[in-house]
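Final report, section 2: Outcomes. Of the targets proposed, Phospholipid-transporting ATPase is the one most frequently requested by collaborating groups, and we therefore present its record in full.
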Amino acid sequence: MFKDSPPPEEERRVRANDREYNEKFQYASNCIMTSKYNVVTFLPVNLFEQFQEVANTYFLFLLILQLIPQISSLSWFTTIVPLVLVLSITAVKDATDDYFRHKSDNQVNNRQSQVVIHGSLQKEKWMNVRVGDIIKLENNQFVAADLLLLSSSEPHSLCYIETAELDGETNMKVRQSLSVTAELGDPNNLASFNGEVVCEPPNNKLDRFCGLLYWRECKYPLNNQNMLLRGCVLRNTEYCYGLVIFAGPDTKLMQNCGRTKFKRTSIDRLMNTLVLWIFCFLVCMGMILAVGNAVWESEVGSLFQSFLDWDLPVDNFLFSAFLSFWSYVIILNTVVPISLYVSVEVIRLGHSYFINWDRKMFCTQCSTAAEARTTTLNEELGQVEYIFSDKTGTLTQNIMSFNKCSINGQAYGEVINPPGTQPQRLDFLSFNPLADPDFCFYDNALLESVKLGDPHSQEFFRLLSLCHTVMSEEKKEGELVYKAQSPDEGALVTAARNFGFVFRSRTPGTVTVTELGRSVTYTLLAILDFNNIRKRMSVIVRNPEGRIRLYCKGADTLLFERLHPSNHHLMNITTDHLNECAGDGLRTLALAYRDLSEEQWEEWSESHRLADRSTDCREDRLAATYEHIEQDMMLLGATAIEDKLQEGVPETIAILSLANIKIWVLTGDKQETAVNIGYSCKMLTDDMTEVFIISGYTVQSVREELRWADITLVTSVELSLFILLYSISGEFALVINGHSLAHALEADMEGEFVSTACACRAVICCRVTPLQKALVVEVIKKHKKAVTLAIGDGANDVSMIKTAHIGVGISGQEGIQAVLASDYSFSQFRFLQRLLLVHGRWSYLRMCRFLCYFFYKNFAFTMVHFWFGFFCGFSAQTVYDQYFITLYNIVYTSLPVLAMGIFDQDVPEQRSLEYPKLYEPGQLNLLFNKREFFICIAQGIYTSIVLFFVPYAVLSQASQGTGEPLADYQTFAVTTATALVIVVSVQIALDTGYWTAINHFFVWGSLGTFFSIMLAMHSESLFSIFPKQFHFVGSSQSTLVQPLVWLTIALATVICIVPVLAFRFLKLDLKPQLSDTVRHTQLVRGRLGMRGGSRRSGYAFAHQEGFGELITSGKNMRLSSLALANFASRHSSSWIDTLRKKKHSTTHPPQSASGEKPMRETRQTPHCGPDMSMMFTVCRYMS
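The predicted structure is given below as tokens.
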């Protein structure tokens, strides 16, 4: 059962058709197992996992104590019932999840594949496939393992695959086998194939493979283009054969299914601390009562020893006190309620379903709903302070359109129309029958240039039709469908298609293009592929006349360094055009070419072949050969592609900024493009005092630029001390380049960078790598101790999404890797405001109210036992019936608090969006913290005092109507329990801000359930069946018919509730919350709206000229946000701002690299915008 795992591999050796040889290396089988349990291991393993939770272990310990009769005054079922309920619910949930994992595993493992065995094809289940087997794949089949492609049905042994399960991209990709194995297309030939592959060990790099094939005393280099990875689907290929290299858990698909870092909310961390404090409090109470027992037994109990001896094994008062301590630990254990954790998970699950069911976050265009992919972070959505966003595909649509271009120094695409006229879209179909009818372009000059035979224009579009990796699918004559790896590339090839250079098809060695109606086939000599370091790609082709030419497209910053010196003048003109395009927010590429002689090609081809076959540092050697040939190129021009903003992005950013959420954009685009998008989405405005540009290449230059920005900020603070709106956060922005960011994130400078960046309203980081995105998020988490959210749509955003407290994936054009790594996903950036300001704020509010009430009701319930101890000789006698103790948390009070935790609201969703400042209490953690916890505990203790001493005082001297004394233990227990349930029910009715039918049913239904169960438990029928279990026979019936008992319950309820009501009314009047003000304004509007009467002119508009311009300029945003604060009487927002300053002064002590200048943060203090009348009032007041 337990066998040693094989040592880690340094290299993998695989011999085809030789299972005996391959089994020596103990390679993994192709069976995958994502499940955790089986029938035998489920119970022990699941229980072991559950008892890793401290609370479960604690209650198991209590259960063991209750089995000791000398110390337990409660039956064992008072603890085992809730414990078993909690363990069962969790076990059922885990079993259900694992069942679906088993079902998925079995479905995959039992798929059929065809394996070549002894010259024939035999069907085998996927789980039985082994490393070294040769399998046959047919069209539309999933690839069973990581295969080396040996041959296929297509010419040149090509095959086409779809990699959606690997990287989310639905476009087809091409793979090709080695030419030496291409003829092995017959099972008999494949059965005799005995080649040996030596390659890298299993890893998770999807775009990389390095190995060698040894066969017939020759060796052949292998790369990623020869591999078919598990999870891919074979498309447009009748069949192919492949050699299994990696199987099962060793495949790259499974290697990428690593465990995601478990994220916990700040409330979870606080709860763990509070539960520890409560346990310490429980121990202290137990010790106090144990000391009381020792004193009582020595002073009073000893007097009864002559006729009432101690129970064995007690023989002295100290041992009695020791046993009493453990007895009280058992009785008072409900201050740490086991049902708390289950209730929290149920509430979070409900919040997750609300997100999934929100029709207002459903995208009709792509039929995609919002999805909460986790249930543990919902309340954290209400506490976000920093958002880190990708640009392309997140803020923009990532649907590219060819917009402008520059060819030989001439700019095209800018069309100026006479006033009142619309630009005319060019008709390409009359000129080119193969044109894409959806393509839009308006500058006729470019089309005329191509028609007139301008060589530069034609060479420009010839380059675009040849230099790419697009796949073309022609279902019928003239109906072309392009499958591009990126939207940019698809847009460029489509542009070339419409201007007469139509890419038709490709083979591994040729590219066929229809040029102005004439079919031309180019010999494809080499592809110098794109990567993030090169930032360019090239192709080397030979035209039908035999001329060899290199075509290159890429980032202008890198391509211009490789131009021939004669291009200097043209490069300056093109640079101006590129800057104009970048200023318009367009994505740009530069295009160039180089003619090669036959000798140059032969020499380079040999060096490239040697580099390609090298076994060590292959990538570096290939990069060096690429660098060698991509020199002395001639500039053709540049392209500019438009990536439009998504719908609602500017409005969303504006609203989130008013909620005091800082938004940082982290993008790989060039600075000019990123800055222009910043202006488009209103992150940057012309009214800003300054936009700091950090672009230094050295540590010293970056430090100087940061310090200059810091000095400017300090000066602004000093000047703004005389201004009412003193915050500088709305006046500055920071733009930093990737090379500068690398220095800014160094240990000795990151403090300065964070200080300066966080004092700015907007931060844009451009030309950053995926790793830098994650580092920026990490440094803010480290220095600001704030909740961070990262949002992106591509694989390059995964590290950032996983690093942030909350990760959001956009299901867009760049695949689904970001979605798979995220905690929440949807299709449009604009849904983020609803996720945070509505669902996030409500989730935080509901969880905080739930926790406050939960701790209150449990302390009110438990502390009655503590006071009773002083009146029962510290004998560990319980106040309540043991069944009441068992059912209090799981029946009588569980559903009302769950309803409040799931459905409660303070203001409607429309008001949450209208008044973004309502979001700030969550950022400051105001609704549930240590202070609020102690207030709840104090209220619970006060309630317990009232519930014990009021019935004790009244009933001790009371008598029934018959003259018999009313005071007895069971009457007191029933009275106290009834008063407790009524008080906590009234309290939750007061705490509930939004009543639904479910709330009414649960609150009043729970109260009715209590009376029903109590009467049933105290009935004679149950007593006659179980006489030893039900000791309170007839108690409730005899107690609740006494008017004095109901007066006592009413008195206790009034004494408990009236102070709470008085405090809340005073707080509402003297220091109202912003939500109170919003509810008040809503109520006032509703009353004004209901006013009737005859119609008459109501013109009395106190308005001044120029205010319309003020609104359109956006300069009134601060004043309008101040208006509601002024309307909110004396509370304004000063209490929030004071807490915010206090929080940041304590959590962020002064620090700097030099030790002289303190690290500051100046925060924006936005206010929600109320209605116009209130805004005018403030404006008149300010004037």
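The longest helix spans residues 831-869.
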